[in-house]
Amino acid sequence: MTRPQQPPGLRHSRILGVGAYRPRRLVPNSEIVAAIDSTDEWIQTRSGIKTRRIASDDETVTSMSVAACRTALERAGVSPYDIDCVIVATVSHLLQTPAVATLIAEELGATPAAAFDLSAACAGFCYGMALASDMVRCGTAHNVLVIGVEKLSDITDPTDRGTAFIFADGAGAVVVGPSDTMGISPVVWGSDGSKYDFIRQEVAWDDAFQRDEATWPTLRMEGNPVFRWASFEMAKVAKQALDLAGVGVDELDAFIPHQANMRITDAMARSLKLPPSVVIARDVADQGNTSAASVPLALDRLIEDGQVSSGDRALLIAFGAGLAYASQVVTIP
Amino acid sequence: MATTEEIRSSLAEIVNEVAGIPVSDVQLDKSFTDDLDVDSLSMVEVVVAAEEKFDVKIPDDEVKNLKTVGDAVAFIERASS
Does the annotation count A122 as an active-site position? Predict the structure, then answer.
């Protein structure tokens, strides 16, 4: 087994606190089946999704993020003044510039923290974790807020059979800070642009408005090829992350994959040969697929439900459009 | 070189493992979807397991043409010959 390949002499990093915001409105399959000519049973069989949370008008990318961050900061025991950087992973903040991270920092009272948005779709949160961990380790920042937030309902076509039952809304946040021991392992990450079209915004904004009838751009996904890539190629990446962290599957306490689809989670867990002692996050059943928000939301759920305890080790992996992916092992705060 | 029956038998074990279908039900004339109730995602899992087992490549575009167990066995025979 490979040992962590980390430059010597750097301090370590860890998650200090986790917070989440789940939109108020719970939408069962029965509410969406008519528009896609489907059934509750079909959706549950294909995805494991029973309900999803859909944000109302007043639940914005900003407000959901701020709520998740306040909880994360409180649990971390860190004041907003002590945050040096705010990283927001999202693809559904519809104002392209300035970065929503700056507004979130301002609303939290975290100014003048550095603040920027990160576009890596469903992989975004684990990308942000990798950056935050390295910033803390190198001393570029002392405490970093990493937020995964999506309001995918704004860019989902309710009549698209491939995506309408999958995508949902929510926000999750963590505070990353210094540690005496390794609380966030080195990331295994990458992308595969040869599969750029597998999950994508259907049309670019300029093309959308040049059409005779302006079309609101929404997400499209090729389900089966994505399932194949995610279930099998991503299990290999997760295994590499475990190896790099020096953690065997029998030493792992929890597996928290991007909550894309229960079938992908099940297939990955089988490929990884996880022992029954490993708790598997299954937040997708109630929450739907919230892209960048899904990993911190699922992490929060496991902590809230008491399925993991402080000091437990969890394998995170996130993957999606790009196709971009990232995986690391973290210690539960 | 494996015989048709050997390939069918190994494939039946894979289908059993992925979808819980009794091995004896996985016969050449059976349709994955209509007779065996193997849905499209399970079919992807069967294909990936078959690629490893038989050391062949089954591209995404080809998967939709594998309607029956016999189609899959014939493809594997061609691909591994």
Answer: yes
Q: What confidence category does residue A209 fall into, taking pLDDT thresholds of 50, 70 and 90?
A: confident
CB contact under 8 A, A225 and B60: yes
Give per-residue pLDDT as tens, A219-232.
999 888 899 899 88
Q: Which residues of chain A neighbour B66 with C-beta distances below 8 Å? A: none
Q: In what order do the strands lie in the sheet with A254-257?
A: A188-191, A324-331, A313-320, A254-257, A279-280
ipTM above 0.95, yes or no: no
Ordered by start, the domain boundaries in chain B are 4-80
Q: Does B48 touch chain A (CB under 8 A)?
A: yes
Q: What is the CATH number of domain B4-80?
A: 1.10.1200.10
Contact (CB<8Å) B41/A225: no
B23 interfaces chain A, CB cutoff of 8 Å? no
List domains and CATH numbers for chain A.
12-179 (3.40.47.10), 188-331 (3.40.47.10)
pLDDT of residue A206: 86
Output the average pLDDT for chain A: 94
